[in-house]
Write a structure and sequence with these properties.
It contains twelve helices and 16 strands. The protein is an alpha+beta fold. The strands form three sheets. Strands 2, 3, 9, 10, 11, 12, 14, 15 and 16 form a nine-stranded mixed beta sheet that branches. A hairpin with a 2-residue loop joins β2 and β3. α2 runs antiparallel to α3 and α6 packs across α7.
Length: about 425
Amino acid sequence: MSNIARATRTASHRTVRFVVDFRWTLLGLAVVTVGIVSMFATISQWVLVVEAVFSVVLLALEVRKNLRESRRTTFLQRPNERFEDVVERLAGAENVRVLEMRSGVFVRDRLVSDRMRSPEQFVRLSKQPYVVPEQLRPQARRFLKYVLANHPGRFNGPCIGWNTDFSDPNWGAGDVEAVVGDHFRFVQSDELAMWDVELDGRVLPEFGRSLFVRRGGDVRNFRDSWLFNLIGASTVAITTDGRLVVTQQSAANMASRNMLAPSGSGSAEPKDFRGADRLVLAQLAINTATRELTEETGIAAGEVEWSSLLGFGRWLDKAARGELLCVTFLNIDSHTVERKRIHRAERIYTTRSRAVRFAQRVGEWSPARPEKLLPEEYRSRMSVPLGAALSLLAEEAGLPDSPVRERITRLPIGP
């Protein structure tokens, strides 16, 4: 092959790559050029034809590229993961309780929980919103397309994520920082981490569980993570006749599909700050959980007598999401709760709410066996947030000076 032929082939390859890489820049430049020229002169028909052909070619290249990329990438769920390495790492750790439930694994740190419950612990919103890091793109964009194609009911709404390192012993000396984001950014980070990414038949090691669990079983800190780290909040409501309010989740519910969830369960939103940039952390938890309670059960805010933050933990199955768990005492009985109607917007996710008897008396409650608090027919469908909240409730009920215990002992609780 002559030098001229080699140079020609090389130049052709470089030209094609340049057109592919900068196709939208070139198309925009062509459109702008034609538009500017048309202001001063009549554009001949053949120029318009060339522009149209050029546009069609660039569009075809884009469609071809997207199709090839979609065939190369596969997203794989990780069912029945038990996080043995994390559980083994935490075995025997002081102040840590690991709850291994049928529906997932929850880790609770008592010291972090106690600090969060302090009336002196504030949370503030960062001025900088969460942005999906470069390290997660372009797989994050492809995953969002995949999710929306398979779940068209998803919609984008505002939410809040953690941005504080709770493993730092000095974190309690200042405010907890939270970042504002939205559901689609959550999908492209936290939800993406719940799946493995396979590219050309090879699972990418930098995605999946490695986004929130290090080698050796250490759970990543929120601040060091690339994830949004959604703030979850739930509450278990108790009626005046000592019944527990639970909600039945539908198949469309992403977090606890077809499971029994707490009375109110969801994620924190900027509006839960109620116009403030800085708020007591326990109050943010109560605001969020109460809003979810009213939306999912139809219980009015005026029917809430008193609420308290029980504690904090991390839901490993959901990319180690940080969950705030509360208890709410109502000023209505179970019959009133059963007659409530769920808000129309929530019916796609929550099929119904019900008030059930506790299966044990308060003195029999065990934080290590939260499912025992439920009647036997409900235990197999207990979601992770419900089990975690009941575990913390059982622990609080055993503390002699607890205001939660004081209220519980007034009620006729038991089978």
